[in-house]
Write a structure and sequence with these properties.
Helix content is 23%, strand content 42%. The chain is of the alpha+beta class. It has one domain: Alpha-Beta Complex (tt1808, chain A), CATH 3.90.1570.10. The protein has a 6-stranded mixed β-sheet. The chain has a two-stranded antiparallel ribbon with strand order 1-2. Strand 1 and strand 2 form a beta hairpin. The longest helix is centred in the N-terminal third of the chain and has 18 residues. It is globular.
């Protein structure tokens, strides 16, 4: 299946995002599979398909690579953005500011350029960087007690 470009609306500005590449999609697929397995028994949480349109405000909708929402309200509580090297500014600066403004509880910035994951938690002062994970470290979250994955496994090359 060919992956197509997609569109986001960031504070009223239409932003056309390039179609994700093969490595981006491999990482996104792995992350989705592992998170799906960890929330299968969570009645209050839904995992949306990759790049599902999520409205943050009246003038802003984003398409995170991974989105967990509350089942009752559809409110986003965890977003993961797999950073694309061609337009990383949109994910790492613009969208991060928007997530911060709506007090998103959790944000994972998954960066294939450096094979690391930046983990952010909401705080009284905005999104707080809790850690940058790489190599043999594991990505976990107390809000997802069944979820844990090795960073090296997330970024490993596909065996052909």
């Amino acid at each position: 299946m060919a992956i197509l470009p997609y569109e986001e609306l960031l504070e009223g500005d239409r932003v056309v995002r390039a179609a994700p590449g093969a490595r981006h999609e491999l990482i996104c697929s792995r992350l989705h599979g592992w998170v799906a397995a960890s929330v299968a028994d969570f009645a209050g949480t839904r995992l949306l398909p990759p790049r599902t349109r999520v409205q943050l405000t009246g003038e802003t909708f984003v398409c995170p690579d991974l989105a967990l929402v509350t089942a009752a309200t559809g409110k986003l509580w965890l977003a993961a953005e797999v950073v694309s090297s061609g337009d990383h500014h949109t994910d790492t600066v613009l969208k991060k500011q928007l997530y911060e403004a709506v007090r998103l509880p959790r944000l994972w910035m998954v960066d294939p350029r450096y094979d690391n994951v930046e983990v952010y938690h909401a705080s009284a002062y905005g999104l707080m960087l809790k850690g940058i994970l790489a190599g043999a470290e594991r990505l976990t979250d107390q809000l997802l007690p069944e979820f844990a994955t090795g960073i090296a496994e997330l970024f490993r090359a596909e065996v052909v």
